[in-house]
Amino acid sequence: MCSFHRRHGDEHTESDPDDQTILNQAETVTERVSDVAFPAFSLDRGEGCEIHENAYWDLQTYLGLRGNLAVNEGARSFIHESNRERTPLGHAHREHVRDLSIEQIREMYRQAVGRLLDRVTDTEEFFRAGIVAIDITESDPFTGDRTGHEDEIIGTKEKTDEYAYQWATVQLVGNAVPIVLDARPVRKGDTRKEIVEDLLDSAEAAIHVDNVLMDREFDSQHILEMLSQRGLSYVVPKRMQTSEKAQAKRLLQRDKDRYETDRKLHLGDNEWHSTTLIYRRKEDSEHDDHRQYSVFMTNRNSGLLTEYGYRWEIESGYKSIKRFMGATTSKHFGLRFFYFAFACLLYSVWRAVDLLVQVQLTGEYEHAPIVTADNTLTLVKKETGIG
């Protein structure tokens, strides 16, 4: 999926790929998606359908690889580029996807990721896994009339006056290949604890999880207690309250870069959650007061803090995922979620293919994706077992 490199740039690339290489790479990724994902996806369209089901997923992949291509326009272009005798028209594609429930989409996604994990777990590099990050992302602000959809188009994380669809994901981070293990919609009324438990259930069913990284919107003591009860370690930044601000001011006066202290967080009745607060001064901070410090909570040693830097991968990953989504103006919640989930799958497949290519060609896995040339693609097909 070289389009990622083209848009973001990468100092690891030997040279910018030409159009033919990008075309070949897109084609290769499409083949991988067909091989891995399609057997897990079913439209249940009944007997006697003239258009092969895989043609629907071919079209969705085509939309993703072309970036923000609307389905009607994409269907017309796809007719010219596809090798299939019959291809789905835009409206038919939408109707069939609309028939899928949120839970059906999630189950298909988990099955597809399971098949993907089966492919990559053969490489020892994959077993550096064990760290997952849970996060919420939002689509571009919704500017239309949301009447009747207030529970689905729920606002933005920054508490502005804008509204947007929100999706939650759990993703492998760290030295592991950054596969999105599961995704779910966020509706009005969903608690952060419910979201975390739900996504962790999926993650732990798929891989062995040791550590969980989350953003400060998940800093509730009840979430932290739940993670500890599951035997998981966590690193979560804490929103600074009065006591943390006072402590940060004292650290500033003493010119200390780092400070640790144990804290008990009240759970209710006479129950408490024990955690460790770590204050860390940011390098090159733009502030000259207590805001130079960040406060993190962890239930393990402070060495885990270095892992929190892995969360940036989610942010860069989300940028890619959003670029792999087909465009739609529909307010159909299932359709919107499907577009996001399928984009997560495209991203995950690409990163999995990249892992296998790197290990095959270099014997190791560097986290920066490599741009593959024509001869590399030939090697992949011949020698890695993914062709």
TrEMBL record:
GO MF terms, alphabetically ordered: DNA binding; transposase activity
Pfam family, one: DDE_Tnp_1
Sequence intervals crossing the membrane: none
Annotated signal sequence range: none
Domain Transposase IS4-like span(s) in chain numbering: 194-334
GO biological process, one term: DNA transposition
Protein name: Transposase DDE domain-containing protein
